[in-house]
Design brief:
By secondary structure, this protein is α/β, with parallel strands linked by helices. The chain is built from eleven helices and twelve strands. An eight-stranded mixed sheet has the order 3-4-5-6-9-10-11-12, with helices on one face. The radius of gyration is 20 Å and the shape is elongated. 35% of the residues are buried.
Amino acid sequence: MATEASKIDIKDLSRDQLSAWLDRRGRRSFRAAQILRWVYRHQIDPFQAMTNLGRPLQSELAAAFTNDRLKVQDETVSADGSHKLLFRLHDDQHVESVLIPEKDHFTLCISSQVGCRQGCRFCLTAAGGWGRDLSAGEIVSQVRDVVQQVNAQGGMPLTNIVFMGMGEPLANYANLVTALAVITDADVGLGFSTRRVTVSTAGLASRLPDLGRDTRVNLAVSLNAADDDTRSRLMPINRRFPLAELMAACRRYPLPPRRKITFEYILLKGVNDSIADAQRLG
């Protein structure tokens, strides 16, 4: 019998990985879809409550996996009604997610890492230093848990997901892509449209071809300056991937029909807000 500490979070597994686990134990691979629907579509936590699996399989799953919720350490509400959730992870690290009310729906801003290595000078996350990558399950859990909360309250639906919280998503690439597959899987996952999921990057240009190949979600680039000197002062990643290289990667990015790349620009007084900056940006 595995101890709780040695068990794997079932949300860390892709559908194919769970199918392979079942196959090694002589179980039919179609059970993976049944299990994941319980986890994501029906929001069921105990394996014993997954009634179409049979008790032997329920026991096998409970012996090998966990299916826990994130712990809400703190929650604050801003004047515009946004809810900032501070989640405590299994190792006592923390990440933030923000539920943002729009006109007729909610948008959820989620994190991909504990802290961040990018060191952007305008970002408070950078001041906290680097912790670790989030697992795929920890990324997905932010969405799964808030979906449950929003659905329980009724009212507006949660329809949009943005990777604009703590961390650089493309620096945690494998776990990002696994999580995106679950978030956008309409059959056994959380069922968000790829048109309503956006990954924001500080400019990790070398990963853009991979993201364009492996997903169909939206891309946002945190730009914040239109010349290399200013951008390098604000965002150290620009020394590794200067603007010409970043823009070339964006031009090659395989956009689906009627999609556009979003460029994010924070105005900093006396730094990047002059008429000349605007002209360079244009």
